[in-house]
Amino acid sequence: EISSxxxxxxxxxxxxxxxxVVDVTGHLGGYNFQxxxxxxxxxxxxx
Length: 47
What we know:
34% of the residues lie in helices and 0% in strands. It contains one helix and no strands.
């Protein structure tokens, strides 16, 4: 379980998941890169 606001584990506070670890499927053409950058940015705001 991951908070979509912080990308932090609900069960293990302080543990963050970003990028392809979250297993989000995007269309070809850079969407997976955008997800990696965006989720990393969000997690960094709360780390």
